[in-house]
Amino acid sequence: MATFSCKSNYYCSYPIIILSLLSFSSLLPITSSSSSSSESDILLSFKSTIDDPSHSLSSWSNTSATHYCNWTGVTCSSSPSLSITTLDLQSLNLSGELNPSICQLPHLSSLNLADNRFNQSIPLHFSECESLLSLNLSNNFLWGTIPDQISQFGSLEKLDFSRNHIEGRIPESIGLFQDLQVLNLGSNLLSGNVPGVFGNFTQLIVLDLSENPFLVSEIPNDIGKLDKLEQLLLHGSGFLGGIPDSFLGLSSLKVLDLSQNNLTGEFPKNLGLAFEKLESFDVSANKLSGSFPNGICRGKTLTSLSLHTNYFTGSLPESISQCLNLERFQVQNNGFSGDFPDGLWSLPKIRLIRAENNRFSGEIPDSVSIAAQLEQVQIDNNIFTGVIPKGLGSVNTLYRFSASNNHLSGELPPNFCDSPVMSIINFSRNSLSGKIPEVRKCRKLVSLSLADNSFVGEIPDSLGELPVLTYLDLSDNNLTGSIPLELQNLKLALFNVSFNHLSGKVPPSLISGLPASYLQGNPGLCGPGLPNSCLDGGPMHKRVSLTKLACALISIAVAATLAMVVFGFVIIHRRSKEKSGVGVWRSVFFYPLRISEQDLVMAINDKTAVGSGGTFGGVHIVSLPSGELVAVKKLANSGSQTSKSLKGEIKTLAKIRHKNIVKILGFCCTDELVLLIYEYLPKGSLGDIIGRPNFQMPWSVRLRIAIGVAQALAYLHNDYSPHLLHRSVKSTNVLLDADFEPKLTDFALDRILGDSLFQSILAFESPSSCYLAPECKYSKKATEQMDVYSFGVVLLELVTGRKAEAADSEGESIEIVTWVRRKINITNGADHVLDPRISSSSEEEMLGALEIGLHCTSVMPEKRPSMAHIVRALQSLGSRSSSRYLEFILPSVGEDSLPV
Ligand SMILES: *[C@@H]1O[C@H](CO)[C@@H](O)[C@H](O)[C@H]1NC(C)=O
Ligand SMILES: *[C@@H]1O[C@H](CO)[C@@H](O)[C@H](O)[C@H]1NC(C)=O
Ligand SMILES: *[C@@H]1O[C@H](CO)[C@@H](O)[C@H](O)[C@H]1NC(C)=O
Ligand SMILES: *[C@@H]1O[C@H](CO)[C@@H](O)[C@H](O)[C@H]1NC(C)=O
Ligand SMILES: *[C@@H]1O[C@H](CO)[C@@H](O)[C@H](O)[C@H]1NC(C)=O
Ligand SMILES: *[C@@H]1O[C@H](CO)[C@@H](O)[C@H](O)[C@H]1NC(C)=O
Ligand SMILES: *[C@@H]1O[C@H](CO)[C@@H](O)[C@H](O)[C@H]1NC(C)=O
Ligand SMILES: *[C@@H]1O[C@H](CO)[C@@H](O)[C@H](O)[C@H]1NC(C)=O
């Protein structure tokens, strides 16, 4: 029966645990005796100057039970005598001062301090570590120049100062390193000329001077002497001039990256032939000219070749079909011409072909079907001819094919969209003809452009069945018939059918918010805003009746399902009633509420109900005898779990402590009902406030709300144990306290209701809720990305000041995601979607938030950032410390990214 908080064990047990820990630790034996080797003292004195906020080095202690060889990051060797050889203190968030005392360890050969926060100049005193062979200080805050005395480190084999703020020239004295195998100075602020001393590094295997934008220099000629060099990484710096002829001597080279510099001239003759072990070759984004490096696949080891964005000319050799391991081939944005080699299309491992913006000719051979790994092809803006082969449709890994602006002709093969992962198809500006085949298999198709061809016949109805189709451009063809009503099912951000021969009535929701020009050039079309307003009748009868039939069938199916669900409950109820008797209240209060279940149940009536009742059950505001108010949510008890596991689930939720999550104060349940008692928040929900006609809220408050909600979700997703999904993020579930601090409610109700009841209520009450991610239609498995999508919708509400679902100027209801995308597409500018009630001084932050909202609501789940990323991105907006928020939310924007 009613109990107070202390029965719910986890509150009261803290002191006991703490007490027992204390007594336990005081009993621990002190094994490191005072005569312990001085090596542990050396470690302790090293530790004494280090700041260790995360207590990563807590095992480093003279009272520790653990032998120092087993301390965090320490490795000892046992011969000739037990002594420390390796210190690996990577990623421990350490800062403070690096104490040279560590060099008293006589056998220390490897010191790794990478990924910490050491903020100082290069610690030259480490050169006193006589046996040190490897020093890694990558990714700290090292500053200052590389001093001449760096050569004191002359006996090192591996030196890694990458990803710091080291500036100035590379001193010539670095040439005194004799034994160096790895030299990494990448991602720093080095400048000036690279000295010609690299020929001395005869043992060098890895040389990395990349991402030093101020390093304006020619590539030293003597690098070519390094015949053991396997990786040469010079990308993203300021290298200019030619690639030295001496490169022919780099006979062990596996990875060459010279991309994004200012290199000019042609390749040394026979460069390709020189590299027998080459795996990756990247010279993209320079100003190189001349022809393709012949023989580059001689060793058959090449997996990635990138020459893009240069001034290369000439044709590609047929010998490229020998590149049996080639996965990525990128020659886009050059002046290449001639027939594109057939063999390239059917390489067994090829995944990426990018050849757009050249003058390639030739056909796409049917043998492309052999390319079992092919994912992405971009050959736009060339002069390819011939038909689109059937073989292309049988490549099941293909997710992007774009070949706009070529001379392709013939019909689209019926299987053109059979790849189950296909996302983007662009055949616009070719000479394709015939009908557009029905498409059903490509359930992930986001963008389809067939504009400016000679297609005839009707727009296939089946396009309306592709759940994530967002961009559809069929303009400039000879299409006839009416626009399928099925397309209204889609969240189309672009729908362009201009200049065809379409007729009949335009489904209004399809085009609301889109410019009339997307319909122009179809004299037979009628509807609001068009030259013809519709007369009754017209050529769309067939489709209407079909759709009606479909609707009727669907409603019957829904009704039948519901009947079955209800029937199921009755059975479950019967069973549970038989077992445990009716109406027995069981309750657990986590706070002293001083109210009995009976009083609580009495208080739950029409008078205390608030709001329109949430999706999963109504909410009542109940006044406790103390005068305090609580919110009580009434849920069905599905009976799908035993009352013990139900209690367990609710306790799991009630234990959540986060300033942006509503507290659960207790619960009562019977076999029929679950009453969840939440803290009461007087300001109501964000959704209600946005919906008010006189809605006004400063941007700073909105941003704070967004950050709070994001933090709450990040906490549920990543930090709380067990990890939880919210599954019903929407603005009406964001409650506001008196200071407008947001608190999320209605979280993780699936755990109380059971997954199947949760899903069926969701499917019945809000089948097309605009907070639901598009993939909910085809994927039953709930994911973090679905929460991220819903959060994105809330963020867009905050940025635009519009409700998630609002009527447009013509009275058509339009979802905010579609509305925002359409507005941005049409006006080519994002500022038109910002809430006009907010002054323009906040515009930059709002645009940033809009950008984040668009990423969150990306159609493809894998394109959405994680909640943790979103929190950081939003915070960096607020702190104004950086306008580079995209860095946070798009950790890996590569060339493979989709435009949505
Ligand atoms: C352990 O270290 C602390 C400070 O680091 C020192 O005060 C104490 O005397 C040391 N104890 C032993 C047993 O060495
Ligand atoms: C380190 O710990 C392992 C097991 O935890 C133990 O076998 C080993 O003897 C310890 N090493 C030293 C040097 O105490
Ligand atoms: C790392 O240390 C800084 C202070 O030096 C602290 O603010 C931050 O929270 C720490 N991060 C982690 C992951 O421990
Ligand atoms: C490094 O230290 C300097 C001086 O104490 C300080 O101004 C700077 O902000 C620090 N840099 C970082 C990244 O912590
Ligand atoms: C240094 O540490 C970084 C970070 O983990 C790592 O990527 C790099 O390979 C290390 N450098 C060497 C030379 O081992
Ligand atoms: C190369 O190393 C030798 C010592 O082996 C040294 O005398 C010479 O100065 C070095 N060259 C450069 C350019 O530092
Ligand atoms: C290349 O050189 C031009 C001037 O010649 C300079 O503006 C540009 O920044 C350089 N690019 C790189 C990547 O260094
Ligand atoms: C498309 O329609 C135009 C105008 O009606 C006509 O001239 C052209 O021949 C048609 N093209 C095809 C491929 O049907």
Automatic annotation (TrEMBL):
Where does the record say this protein resides? Membrane
Give the range the annotation lists for the signal sequence: 1-33
Q: Give the record's membrane topology.
A: Single-pass type I membrane protein
Keyword DNA-binding appears in the UniProt entry? no
Task: Spell out the molecular function terms from Gene Ontology.
Answer: ATP binding; protein kinase activity; receptor serine/threonine kinase binding
Q: Where are the transmembrane segments?
A: 552-572
Q: What is this protein called?
A: Protein kinase domain-containing protein
InterPro entries assigned to the protein according to its UniProt record, in alphabetical order: Kinase-like_dom_sf (IPR011009), Leu-rich_rpt (IPR001611), Leu-rich_rpt_typical-subtyp (IPR003591), LRR_dom_sf (IPR032675), LRR_N_plant-typ (IPR013210), Plant_LRR-RLKs (IPR050647), Prot_kinase_dom (IPR000719), Ser-Thr/Tyr_kinase_cat_dom (IPR001245)
Q: Where is the Protein kinase domain?
A: 605-877
Q: Name one GO cellular component term.
A: membrane
The UniProt keywords, alphabetically, are: ATP-binding, Glycoprotein, Leucine-rich repeat, Membrane, Nucleotide-binding, Receptor, Repeat, Signal, Transferase, Transmembrane, Transmembrane helix
Give yes or no: UniProt keyword Coiled coil: no
